[in-house]
Write a structure and sequence with these properties.
single chain, alpha/beta, TIM Barrel, eight-stranded parallel β-barrel, two-stranded antiparallel sheet, 10 strands, globular
Length: 274
């Protein structure tokens, strides 16, 4: 484990992603399987499925992960939006199962005009709707949010509530920039210990399945989602040393592609020093 990768484009088809990942130095990678902005998902035919799997082997990519589209919102007061969100994420799980993706991760959404407890309840109901009768191989992960505005799931307590109320034992994707912006100090040794304690008291360390490794342009507790290159932001390399030392998981970068190759090298160097 502790394999390193980043988010890559699927322009031209999902089967193009493994080669792009390899060119960047990835050992694993993340992608959208459809446009993150909207529209119908391109069909994954048996031919595309086979081509994708062949490219994974050819380019020595060990795993792939799918990020759900940004526009889904399980905490919306609009029932049609909630229903559509559940349908789309379920589709992503099915599509992931077709091509052998390990995880699909998603952001719960934002509750603008309702009580937060009610928003947590309907978010959990949406998760249950996704998972009802699902038999595929791809696992669903909740991703911790940065806490901007009325965004849900910005604390481990809220993630635990969603999981418990849904009735399904989901995993968690932790994003270093989101955690930091939400007030979880992973930069200092003492702060990181407190963060681990918060995880242990809520979802549990075993629930953490994947790391989104992003430095933050935003200060601790700044409650905004702004990624920076590793070591260039407010977290610094120390935070990623802590994460890598503690979690034997895959690390996915979501930094700008102008320097993502360098970020991959930085993480590989940190790994080699363990």
């Amino acid at each position: 484990m502790r394999r390193i990768g980043c988010h890559v484009s699927i322009a031209g088809g999902v089967f193009k992603a493994p080669e792009r990942a390899a060119e960047l130095g990835c050992e694993v990678f993340q992608m959208f399987s459809r446009s993150p902005q909207g529209g119908a998902a391109p069909k994954i035919t048996p031919e595309i499925e086979l081509a994708f799997k062949e490219e994974m082997i050819k380019h020595k990519q060990k795993e792939c992960f799918i990020h759900a589209p940004y526009y889904i919102n399980f905490a919306s007061s609009n029932k049609a939006i909630r229903s559509s969100s559940a349908r789309i994420v379920r589709e992503e799980l099915e599509r992931g199962s077709q091509i052998g993706a390990q995880y699909v991760m998603f952001h719960p959404g934002s509750a603008k005009d309702m009580d937060r407890n009610e928003a947590l309840k309907i978010t959990a109901e949406g998760v249950a709707k996704i998972m009802d009768s699902y038999k595929g191989s791809t696992e669903l992960l909740l991703e911790i949010s940065a806490g901007t505005g009325n965004v849900m799931g910005d604390t481990f307590e809220e993630l635990e509530s969603i999981i418990t109320m849904s009735g399904y034992n989901l995993g968690i994707c932790i994003d270093s920039a989101h955690m930091f912006a939400s007030g979880y100090d992973i930069k200092t040794q003492e702060g990181f210990k407190k963060t681990l304690s918060a995880i242990s008291k809520t979802v549990g360390k075993s629930a953490i399945k994947l790391i989104h490794a992003n430095d933050s342009k935003i200060e601790l507790g700044g409650r905004r989602d702004r990624h920076d290159h590793i070591g260039a932001g407010k977290i610094g390399r120390e935070g990623f040393e802590h994460l890598m030392d503690e979690f034997n998981l895959d690390f996915i970068l979501e930094t700008e592609h102008d320097k993502v190759k360098e970020d991959i090298i930085v993480l590989k160097n940190l790994r080699s020093n363990l």
